[in-house]
Amino acid sequence: MNLAYRDVRHNLFRFVLTCLGLSLLMAVVLAMIGIYNGLVADALNIVKAPQADLWVVESGTQGPFAEASKIPGSTRDAVARLHGVAEAGSITYQTVEARHAGDTLRLYVIGYEPGRPGGPQAIAEGRGITQTHFELVADRQTGLVVGDRIRLGRNSFAVVGLVEDTMNSGGDPAAFITLPNAQILQSQLAPPAQRIQTARGAGLLESADTVAAVIARLEPAADPLGVATTVRQWKHLGALTQAEQEAILIGSVVDRAKRQIGLFLGILLTVSAVVIALIIYTMTMEKLKQIATLKLIGAPDRTIVSLIVQQSLALGMVGWSFGLILILLVKDYFPRRVVLEPVNAAALGGIIIVVCIVASGLGVRAALKVDPATAIGG
Amino acid sequence: MDEARRPLIEIAGVSKHFGEGEARVDALRDIDLTVRRGEVVALLGPSGSGKTTLLNVIGCIIAPTVGRVTLDGELVYDNRALRGDLRRLRLDKIGFIFQFHNLLPFLNARDNVALVLTLAGRSSAEAQERALELLDYLEVGHRKDAMPAVLSGGEAQRVAIARALANSPRIILADEPTAALDSKRAGIVMDLLRKLAAEHDACIVAVTHDEKIYDRFDRLFHLRDGVLEDQEEEAT
């Protein structure tokens, strides 16, 4: 005869309500884990998307994501000629705000050279860029559809294709355009500002042919560190391997957000543990007379302990399951990507089991201290 | 000794005090009490006289400070507890009936009775069968599936009695068993307890304030300030 099950069945409505409350808490915890994963995944997606082995950037910087980097456009040819380099491509990154369908759209514009590394990897809908000018491939999160037109700077671009899950660490969806268009977008000023610059003669001195980085794919036998060392011999250039670039991104760009979410996650888990402990303790305190009766009629301590621990675990597991279902149903409605891996859900399940067992300790302690004499005398 | 009159409860020189120094309260003082097979006895006295403490000592819920307690021929206390597993002793030898029946609200009538049997190690099927027999015997078998909340006071008390009898204990301790019942039902319950004591070769010790049922007891023990003052035989 399972007393925990019978008690739950007897108070089913209250148990389900308690589980629902707990499941909302679990859903928030899972959402935070998912947002954290999404943050890291988005950040890494941008770095991984070009499938580069080497990032050539401005000397002394950790660009182009952690710091601004500006190198001459001719660098690509120099890098492409290095021993061990299979192919190289110039790339630029900039954040742009544009108007579309009455809304302000924040885009992470990536300028690349079609046919060279740096472009979108997989086109989910439409096609890739084939014209030198005024075509754009956007992430689906922008809300743009194939055939839309959008104005960036002083030029209008046609959306010819869509990609998925390509955004920067800030959550801004990516938009790919050709490198020449990106360079124009970076350097082109509004007409009045341009007139003043021209009058000062500044516009004539500054070259528009700069890029944020050159990315290189190496021959299979080439050593990335060896090629990086070669690049660094040019004093005005720095080089980062793909692994170094990813480490910089995680370590600096998303580190603060990661710690912030991690801390919040810790607080949420603590709150969950306290809530579970309070629920279990309250449930136990309500049953003290019944526990005293059980002791008096000869129930061993293990019967009473298992009644409390089983109910605690049932509460935690049902709350966790409901929470997981809830977050899986709503995760796509979050403004930022929520990435939940099975291992995350399983880890939280494991934590909840431990929390439930520890939390039920309070109830168990109270139950074991109950004097069977309490059952006598009303 | 005549087996039919064999003592089931023998208490000799039992005292119990709580606290020490100025806070010391003497709940029981040098109590001697013997209850034999088939006897139904009452513990009477005002609040704080030590009735419940004596019931707790007999029920192995609290240990006496000094004295000897023998239950069903087994010496349980002799100035100290002689048996480690008092829970098992309660399960095997003692049945409890409470003022407000204390049935577990999440088990139906049958399971409330069967629980005691499963705790004693009987199989589930055996426990269910025996529980139904007892409920039928106490004429509440038709309410076997009812939850305690929907049972009447009399029905709930009969189920509680069935639970107390489940392991065929030789000693039944009752705390105000009729306090929650009207006088007619109180009389019926007491007659039932007398019948059970006779049929099960058990003895019953009840704490009560209910004067209407005094005539249902074989003997009445009066306690005052922890002292067993006198005892009187009742014609039943």
N-to-C series of helices and strands of chain B: EEEHEEHEHHHEHEEE
Q: Give the largest interface pair and sizes.
A: A-B, 25 and 32 residues
State the distance separating the first and last CA atoms of chain B.
25 Å
CATH architecture of chain B: 3-Layer(aba) Sandwich
Quickly give the structural class of chain B: alpha/beta
Q: Catalogue the unreliable spans of chain B.
A: none
Count of distinct strands of chain B: 10
Q: Which band does the percent of strand residues of chain A land in?
A: 15-25%
Largest sheet of chain A: 10 strands, mixed
Using the alpha-carbon principal axes, give the shape of chain B.
Answer: globular
The structural class of chain A is alpha+beta
Number of domains of chain A: 2
Total helices of chain A: the number is: 12
Q: pLDDT below 50 for ≥5 consecutive residues: which ranges of chain A?
A: none
The overall number of domains of chain B is: 1
Mean pLDDT of chain A: 87
- Report the strand count of chain A: 12
Radius of gyration of chain A: 30 Å
Keywords:
heterodimer, A: 378 residues, alpha+beta, 2 domains, 10-stranded mixed sheet, 12 helices, elongated, B: alpha/beta, Rossmann fold, 6-stranded mixed sheet, 10 strands, globular, ABC-4/HrtB_transporter (chain A), ABC3_permease_C (chain A), transmembrane helix (chain A)
Description:
Chain A: Residues 263-372 form the ABC3 transporter permease C-terminal domain. Chain A: One of its GO terms (cellular component) is plasma membrane. The complex is a heterodimer of chains A (378) and B (236). Chain A has helices spanning 3-10, 12-48, 75-80, 179-187, 191-200, 202-205, 224-232, 242-253, 255-286, 288-296, 301-330, 342-369; strands at residues 54-58, 71-72, 85-100, 103-112, 125-126, 135-139, 149-152, 155-163, 174-178, 210-211, 213-218, 237-241. Chain A is an alpha+beta fold. Chain A folds into 2 domains: 3-43 and 256-375, no CATH class; 49-253, no CATH class. In chain A, helix 1 (3-10) crosses helix 11 (301-330), helix 2 (12-48) packs across helix 8 and helix 2 crosses helix 11. Chain A starts with a helix and ends in a 9-residue tail after the last helix. The mean pLDDT of chain A is 87. In chain B, a hairpin with a 6-residue loop joins strand 1 (7-18) and strand 2. The radius of gyration of chain B is 18 Å and the shape is globular. Chain B starts with 6 loop residues before the first strand and ends with a strand. The mean pLDDT of chain B is 86. Chains A and B meet through helix 1 and helix 10 of A and helix 1, helix 2 and helix 3 of B.
